[in-house]
Design brief:
This protein has 355 residues and is an alpha+beta fold. It is 26% helix and 28% strand. Strands 6, 7, 8, 11, 12 and 13 form a six-stranded antiparallel beta sheet that branches. Strands 1-2-5-3 form a four-stranded mixed beta sheet, covered by helices on one side. The longest helix has 19 residues. It starts with 13 loop residues before the first strand and ends with a strand. 42% of the residues are buried. The model has no long low-confidence stretch (mean pLDDT 94).
Amino acid sequence: MNASSLPPDPDGLQQDVRLAPLTTIGIGGPARYFLKASDSDTIVLALDWARSRGLPVFVLGGGSNLLIADKGFEGLVLQIGLRGVTLESQSDDFVMVKAAAGEAWDPFVEHVGRKGWAGIECLSGIPGLVGATPIQNVGAYGQDVSETIARVEALDRTTGVVVWFTNDDCRFGYRSSRFKNAEPDRFIILSVTFRLRRGGAAIIRYPELGKALVESGVALHDLERVRDTVIGIRKRKGMVIDPADPDSRSDGSFFMNPILTAVEFEAFLRKAPDAPHFTADDGVKLSAAWLIEQAGFRKGFSHGNVGISSKHTLALINRGDGSAAEISELVSLIQQRVRERFGVEIHPEPNFVGF
């Protein structure tokens, strides 16, 4: 394709945009090209523009759960800015609520809680956008979005066609989905529809949260106070973005809890008979935080300009002027020591971009 036949630059296209300020950990080099798309037509035009120039495309949401390389991204960074929340249907017991991918997640959780629609209140205080939640199957405090997602609307980058996925189609697993594992980078999420319990009570599975609710006298139908309690716990762990809290300059929980088969777990118990563990659908889940601590990494551990949160072992933080290279070094060091101590592999949850 010659230069004269290339699609024109999309409106709003920028060059050499710093990405670090657009991430929760505050790390990352520049985007060669950057565009914020507020509608699906702009997304399609941007993809065509990048394809015609042989440029890779990275889709950016709220900048959480993400580590961008220090060299940045040598292509087009497409930030999803689609907005809107719609009540699609309701019955005596349930509501169907569609949220555009560019809606901020936590305000959406707050909105449905005020309405008395239960199902995602334990996911309060999590940064990022709605569109990222089905990709990671975002979860916390005993609740995953896969429990309430009814369908996902997405643009297929290979065909340019908008497709709809049911919950089963999404192939959800622990911090995983078809969008993350089976077909990464194929689909761009446009909206997510949630099936929530109208006038429902919070379902509490996480002991720490249950204890806090009992101690505070919070009724499970009071979703706003359940949300406040969740956020209070997250703040104590540095898991709520707060400019005044340096521990919150992070990607949240950086490592996933490993899941072992029954045979692997028997071998593990010979090395750590007192290790906390939990039953999972496909095996036995271990506590990554416990493994990391027992491998010699204390809260507040430093590695150059990065380190481990002083409040939560799973959170790797930017102490100021931190680099992606330092985070990568720390990740490798933690993985190595856990492997040497327990024979267990722990894997990062964030998406690594530009490496």
